[in-house]
Amino acid sequence: MFNSPVLVFDIETVPDADSGRTTLGLDGIDDHDVARAMAHRRRQKTGGSDFLALHYHRIVAIAVALKEGDGFRVWSLGDKDSTEKELLERFFSGIERYDPTLVSWNGSGFDLPVIHYRALYNSVVSKRYWENGDTDREFRWNNYANRYHWRHIDLMDVLSGFQARATAPLDEISQLLGLPGKMGVSGADVWRHYTAGHIDVIRNYCETDVLNTYLVYLRFQHIRGQLTTDSYELEINRVRSTLVQDGRPHMTKYLSKWGPPTSQIECIDSLP
User: Fold this and answer.
1) Which pLDDT value is given to residue 269?
2) pLDDT for position 155
3) DSSP bridge pairs for 154
4) Any residues with CB less than 8 A from the CB of 63 and at least 6 apart, and which?
5) CATH number of the domain at 6-164+181-257, out of 3.10.620, 3.30.70, 3.30.420, 3.30.160?
6) How is the chain split into domains, by residue range?
7) pLDDT interval class at 265 (50, 70, 90)
8) What is the spatial distance between Cα 144 and Cα 104, in angstroms, rounded to a whole number?
């Protein structure tokens, strides 16, 4: 059962060379060398990891999956030439329009903080997203900003019991559930594809991550009793039909790697 539209989201980012150029005093240095300098500084600071602090990320793709009524679709916001500000404006306009339940994997730890910093940087307004009960009482006890509320469900957080040492990668959980997981591209490849001008590769990869997240979410809704076995299988088949109708190569590849439907849930439910 879905009491409201569900919007699953994922972002892909690259180093924000402009910010790095400013804070590191690297005027006149090209983006590639600035990114290298940012990674080097980060390794010095962390003792080994070059994963940048979240406020140094720039968003280059946002993919979403929307479940509304009997409809389901997956797409990337904007187009390959959209600015970061345009992507953010489209993301927040979806929240204003649908008032959805947001679903993510590690959204509380990565995607949303980055979105917050970049919205601040780009001056992107979203009254509904930041609502905390001042004008709508329903948001006082259930809003997007509070980690322990249900208007945003971070599956990684919830399934790990909010314990950092118990978290798991989406790719591995997806494969354990018989889903394709990542298909030849990972977050570590985004900068390389971006500098090569392969933004479509990044957008397609982001969409398959959203698919994995949504399908894990459906299983989660099933185990918590929000979807009956019949309803769960109906939603799974809806996703399959959507991928067939979509027809884009990365969606066709995802469907082929997913394989035929299984009776795993039926077997579990038939146990005495």
Assistant:
1) 45
2) 98
3) 104
4) 9, 10, 11, 74, 75, 76, 77, 203, 206, 207, 209, 210
5) 3.30.420
6) 6-164+181-257
7) low
8) 12
